[in-house]
Structures are given as C-alpha cells and as structure tokens.
Amino acid sequence: MNENGIHSLIIRSCDVKDGGTYSCIGRNKAGQATFTVNLTVLEKERHVPPKFTERVSGVTVVSGQDIVLTCAVVGNPTPTLSWAKDNQVIKNNEKFT
Fold first, then answer.
1. Residue 25's domain spans which residues?
2. Number of independent structural domains in the chain
3. Residue 61 domain-assigned?
4. Band of pLDDT at residue 1, cut at 50, 70 and 90
5. Residues 35, 17: one domain?
C-alpha cells in the first residue's frame, strides 16, 4: 500500500504462523536497498475462569473476638475478589476491612 510516499504491508488477522522476518526491498536502475524487520506474534491471552485454590470452611469464633477469613484464587486475567454476607456485598468500614 502506498500513501503519500509511505509504503505499508498490512497483515490482517495476524496469527502465530505470520511471525517471521519480513523484508522491504527498493530497486531502481542505480541499485537495490533492503531492510528487514522481525515480527513476533503472541498467542491470544488464554482466559481461565476463577478457581479457588485455598478456602476456609465452617469457622466458629467467640463474640467480641476478631476473625480473619482467607482464600486464594487463580485465573486469567487475574480475578478481582469481593466478600459478601447473606448475599450483600461487604464494603470496607470500621467493622470490615
């Protein structure tokens, strides 16, 4: 493609197999010039749903004591976590952090 003296190669819907060394070659009666560029095409980010790798189960605490509930989760992209009590999302405040 040639627009205002700028020459471009457009590669639509790049795939991993499109990766490689590309060359642009200019020729005229006086000779030839070449430049190369290496193109690396990364695989699309593979999405993985959240999965809990650690979680607490039934916990008992005496009234007035503090308790820490923990969990660990993996996934791609990295999941964001929130906590809820009786189906109501918990917001950070003086009681919950």
1. 2-39
2. 2
3. yes
4. low
5. yes
Judge whether 32 lies within some domain.
Answer: yes
Does 96 map to a domain? no
Q: In this predicted model, what pLDDT tens digit does every residue of 20-60 receive, in sequence order? A: 999 999 999 999 999 999 999 998 888 899 999 998 888 89
Q: Among candidates 15, 18, 75, which has minimal Cα distance to 43?
A: 15
Q: Which of helix, strand or coil describes residue 22?
A: strand
* Helices vs strands, H then E, count in the chain: 0, 8
pTM above 0.70, yes or no: no
Tell me how far CA of residue 54 lies from CA of 44, 51, 71, 72, in angstroms: 28, 9, 5, 5
